[in-house]
């Protein structure tokens, strides 16, 4: 039997929108309106025809402007989400051996994919405890250096800069930007591949991956997919995992396989909204403001504290807050949910008494302030 709470949060301190998920994240009403507007012209139509291709073209052009792409860099996209891109990178980008920085669930999953690929050598792992990060170090024989810009499971943000000596050795820098892209500053020239799925800062659904590719990454994919492996056998790359096929289709403003047109509509609307408001600089400043409000509140609280000890490593997109033992996060979360404030739970596998709050660009900083008031109100009445 479901037990309801008797704690009713006053309307005066409630956020206007109670969605604070770390992905899927808040979808703006204007994105839903764009779906409704596209019901007759886009939804239920062929993705090979001009209307949908123009939509994809707008996404690619908008992201090029948003990330201020260096000359020669291209936007590619395909189905499957960032999880699929890990396999694409193993199949099409890593020649022999990769090095990984691992400091949470998602940064470790890509490394696991590389370790399980029968045609790759055992990866070099540079690991640190949750709540910290560690970048891979230069390693002889490594041709790809990989880590996450933002570890979604722990709320840790890591620097994006090439490993010294890696570019001179011909190695690629491959960065998972899933919960960072659109929320954290990034110099794309410091990467060869910056990939993400759109259910975070871009306020859309999963099932799609987007990758910013350097000329070196494009050349690597072409070479890996066409060349023989170490034992003289050509590497088998399934079409779904072929980065060259994805890029060839992207250049035609389409995907290899049928995409979710609704997802494309929402993402295109979000990219235009971000660019119209000032692009990456505006988005990252907005997220930094919201994150700062949460960290300052936690530092001043008698029962909460930021999980990430190093202020320089604290994420500005996914904020993790530890609660003291006498305040049970599950109880606080249940009451918040019954009052319409949702998706603030910590990452389950981390197993901490914790709140995890997404502060992507769609989240209003004023709503973040009211969230802290609501949490205080609930805790005072437990």
UniProtKB/TrEMBL annotation:
Its cofactor is pyridoxal 5'-phosphate. One of its GO terms (biological process) is glycine biosynthetic process, by transamination of glyoxylate. Residues 141-342 form the Aminotransferase class V domain. The keyword Amino-acid biosynthesis applies. Pfam families: Aminotran_5 (PF00266). Its EC number is 2.6.1.52. Keywords: Amino-acid biosynthesis, Aminotransferase, Cytoplasm, Pyridoxal phosphate, Pyridoxine biosynthesis, Serine biosynthesis, Transferase. It comes from the Bacteria. It catalyses: O-phospho-L-serine + 2-oxoglutarate = 3-phosphooxypyruvate + L-glutamate; 4-(phosphooxy)-L-threonine + 2-oxoglutarate = (R)-3-hydroxy-2-oxo-4-phosphooxybutanoate + L-glutamate. NCBIfam families: serC_3. Catalyzes the reversible conversion of 3-phosphohydroxypyruvate to phosphoserine and of 3-hydroxy-2-oxo-4-phosphonooxybutanoate to phosphohydroxythreonine. This is phosphoserine transaminase. It comes from Bifidobacterium reuteri DSM 23975.
């Amino acid at each position: 039997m479901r037990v309801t709470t008797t704690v009713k949060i006053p309307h005066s301190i409630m956020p206007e929108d109670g969605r604070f998920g770390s992905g899927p994240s808040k979808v703006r009403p204007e994105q839903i309106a764009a779906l409704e507007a596209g019901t007759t012209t886009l939804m239920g139509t062929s993705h090979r025809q001009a209307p949908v291709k123009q939509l994809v073209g707008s996404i690619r052009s908008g992201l090029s402007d948003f990330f201020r792409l260096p000359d020669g860099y291209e936007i590619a996209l395909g189905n499957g989400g960032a999880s699929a891109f890990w396999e694409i990178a193993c199949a099409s980008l890593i020649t022999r051996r990769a090095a990984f920085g691992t400091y949470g669930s998602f940064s470790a999953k890509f490394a696991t994919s590389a370790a399980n690929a029968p045609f790759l050598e055992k990866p070099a792992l540079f690991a640190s405890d949750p709540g910290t990060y560690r970048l891979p170090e230069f390693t002889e024989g490594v041709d790809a250096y990989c880590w996450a810009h933002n570890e979604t499971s722990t709320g840790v943000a890591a620097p994006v800069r090439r490993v010294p000596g890696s570019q001179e050795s011909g190695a690629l820098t491959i960065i998972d930007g899933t919960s960072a892209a659109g929320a954290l500053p990034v110099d794309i020239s410091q990467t060869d591949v910056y990939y993400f799925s759109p259910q975070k800062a871009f306020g859309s659904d999963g099932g799609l991956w987007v990758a910013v590719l350097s000329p070196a990454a494009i050349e690597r994919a072409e070479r890996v997919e066409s060349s023989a492996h170490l034992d003289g056998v050509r590497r088998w790359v399934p079409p779904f995992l072929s980065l060259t096929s994805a890029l060839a289709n992207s250049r035609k403003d389409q995907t290899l396989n049928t995409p979710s047109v609704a997802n494309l509509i929402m993402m295109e609307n979000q990219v235009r909204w971000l660019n119209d408001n000032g692009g990456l600089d505006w988005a990252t400043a907005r997220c930094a403001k919201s994150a700062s409000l949460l960290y300052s509140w936690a530092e001043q609280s008698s029962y909460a504290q930021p999980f990430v000890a190093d202020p320089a490593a604290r994420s500005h997109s996914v904020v993790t807050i530890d609660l003291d033992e006498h305040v049970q996060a599950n109880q606080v979360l249940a009451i918040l949910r019954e009052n319409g404030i949702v998706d603030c739970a910590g990452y389950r596998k981390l197993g901490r008494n914790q709140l995890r709050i997404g502060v992507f660009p769609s989240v209003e900083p004023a709503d973040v302030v009211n969230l802290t008031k609501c949490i205080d109100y609930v805790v005072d009445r437990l």
